[in-house]
Design a protein that fits this description.
70 residues, 0% strand, elongated
Length: 70
């Protein structure tokens, strides 16, 4: 319990310093929660799809790309 209180004061100091410097601040607890929410696993298929879309390839031509690349 005592260790947690000491740790909280360090976190508070970091938070105040960050806000004072116009920076964003997330506590360690919040960072862990955000990391859990943003835990995505992309397949090769997903990456290829996004890559084709970013290149401006029309969705109706995806079938052609997959036949020639796979």
């Amino acid at each position: 319990m005592y260790e947690k209180a000491r740790h909280d004061s360090k976190e508070l100091k970091k938070a105040i310093t960050s806000v004072y410097n116009n920076e964003n601040y997330l506590s360690l607890d919040l960072k862990q929660e955000v990391k859990k929410l943003n835990n995505y696993e992309f397949t090769t298929y997903d990456i290829t799809l996004v890559s084709l879309l970013s290149q401006g390839v029309l969705q109706k031509t995806f079938r052609y790309f997959y036949k020639t690349t796979i």
